[in-house]
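Q: Sequence in, structure out?
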Amino acid sequence: MGKLFFYSDQTLELSDNERLDRILLDGRDSINTTIGYIPSTEDREKTHFNTKVHYYRNYGIKELMFFDLYSEFDSSKIGELLKCDIIHLSAGNPVEFRNAIKHRGMDKILSNYFNGGGTIVGVSGRAVQFGMSINLFQLFTGDLVQGLEALQFVDFEFCLTLTVGMMNIKKKFIHMLKQTE
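A: Exactly. Output:
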């Protein structure tokens, strides 16, 4: 079994990310580490990919592979992806991403990679993909997404009730702060 890294967001500005990044990269030679980047949506200009290239270069990592699930999908690159030390699943639309993974048959490939000892980073909704269900996607769609399942790498799920509750608490807290100004 491999390692999973769950990021809420992955920016250089968050000190919590730096701590998690250190664990992710612990024991790895950054010069020889390769990361396979899978975008959550179409990224023809590679705007989001280049942001992650910059992010990982701060740690000395120079080898990032762009693996597209959309218009530039090339199944002959799957072998190269699986040789990467880390596979990075980017943030973005979780439903579109899950549909693309299912359509390309990458769910089984990622599962085999993880079960064979591979390391996978999931940012935002991609981290939710690791759980037992995708019920949390209701936040994006308004109702349950039919015909899609989570990758089920871990035996827990992200709870919609708790997440919505925390968002409501945050809104109330911000409202209270504004009233005291």
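The helical segments are 15-25, 47-57, 78-82, 94-104, 106-115, 125-129, 138-141, 160-180.
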